[in-house]
């Protein structure tokens, strides 16, 4: 077996994103010929040989505290001995240690071949002030910048002078070393710039801080591959369109969670001449910085045509729809093809034989049509789930997946590969509508690139158009192809039984529960009523109060006060969770403390707002997406849980009332129910945010719960109770049930049941499948669901 050692983790704030990249490498490189060996670097730069199952954890915090028991610690000598047994290293550590040249220097000292640029090149690129010096020395335009250090005697005066000299009314403060827009701030005054710089120093985010003039052009990013002759070849750039109003920038959330506030254009909306200039300059810079194999270069196009390159990324992100895969897909390269190209170049450079790719035949595979999108507030999460299901099934020897977008008019679009990798549902839909113009521009760009990369050009397949179908035509096509439908929709008709009923009537098999159970579980009020019929005294239901938006908008402040007072008197609680009565599991959920906050929440809904800005409510650090069609809401008592945090690799559990929030996956086969190992969900705020549930590298899910928190006997009881709940609700195939469990009383409160749980790259149900005996990989878990679809 050809073995690739993938380094992930590291000491930077981007360590969670590093796991995402390592997961992609594991998913797309693993084959009958290639073995992937994960090596994890913790916050203190200690090395561990990691199991592949741990790579599917959402964040390093999920397993950092138990590394000594679940991973193999490696000294430098043991690391060296291990690396001597592998063929090549693929560094997937973002930020410090992985991109600043430190890891590369260590590998060079050990004489271990690796993918990507060498240590000196990385150090020169990664530290932005050094990169700017190189650019200026070689005649390239740079954004005016001022370097600040924690030792500066009078930084405020320096900052004031920079603002005055460049007549600034907006600037950027950011670490000199780092990526992913972590610690990057948009400021409008020198005083604000000073405060943000001090914050970065105080938090030890970096010893050097750059103050830059805010760029007013259009952002772009471009990948460069090194071809078989050692020549750099720039791919088709991507334009990043966002609104910069209200001090917004291309921040961490916009990079790693799909949002309609950010639009990617690949190809960019630039003239052919501008695109060519970007590509030529990117290739020249690749040579100037002595880059190797591949790299990503970020820059700006000003209105006067001036091109600025502002950031150089030695290890680009490798998430499922990262820029490398978006841009490579336009050339006809799959995820695996793109990674193989980069790996093969590194192997050729190191005179290592790379295995010949063997593609399994498609003829004996069963068709699976993966549906995602829709028109609910969770449509972007659906895109992440559907894309991930499609990608994880592509290497399957049993199933042949085809992606379909469900648009807001209930049409189904069969998508070519590149379209599926767009950032948002809206991008995919717009590209489908303008596919001819999109294809014409792409065709003009790709032929020379493919020739220089020595790729075999199947132009007809590369330029394939999306196919639009009505619901009726989709069903006929699925029946003709004998396809199983994989519904990756969240909320709305994808989860309320509407599509399930339609597919059942037409004899199509699909994943998840049937119409009745889907409809019941979507309605949280009816779900609670069904559970209350159980004779088991250990399962209790929270009291719920319904609130209709159309009526509540006419309430006076006194009406809200009276409503709140009556609610507190009836329930004996003084804090409440408000949530949609019938929608998905992650939208519109807020903790309310007062009648005034309830009034404020209803005002957002009445205005038709798409989201609630961060810090609107107490203990709300992130934006809250709002449902688009829901008119009825539920108020239920807020259950305060024990405090569970992970600090410095230590799990700290502080008891409160004994309540712990858990989520449990359930699998049903022929009427037999099996609850998987629960996960403890750890929320940064009062309730789990959309990011913590679905964005890789953000939320913390501890699977299985440590026995010091949930005993073996309690674990068995929880599983039994969950199986009873699933049977009562009529759940089929699989689901995820969220609960509160009291460690002291053994009582359980069911929060909700999700008949189509999220299947994003790091979602908790994969962790639980991997904790089974024997472990189920994400691909095997999905294959199990399809096999038992009805």
Task: Summarize this structure as a short list of keywords or feature phrases.
single chain; 790 residues; alpha+beta; seven-stranded mixed β-sheet; six-stranded antiparallel β-sheet; 30 helices; 23% strand
Offer a concise description of the structure:
The chain is α+β, with helices and mostly antiparallel strands and 790 residues long. It contains 30 helices and 35 strands.
- Which shape, going by the Cα principal axes? globular
Q: Which percent band covers the strand fraction?
A: 15-25%
Question: Kindly state the mean pLDDT as a whole number?
Answer: 90
Distance between the termini: 38 Å
Q: Uncertain regions: pLDDT < 50 for 5+ in a row? A: 249-256, 685-698
Q: Helical element count?
A: 30
Question: Which secondary-structure class do the elements indicate?
Answer: alpha+beta
Major sheet characteristics: 7 strands, mixed
Helix content: 25-40%
Rg is 26 Å
Give the beta-strand count: 35
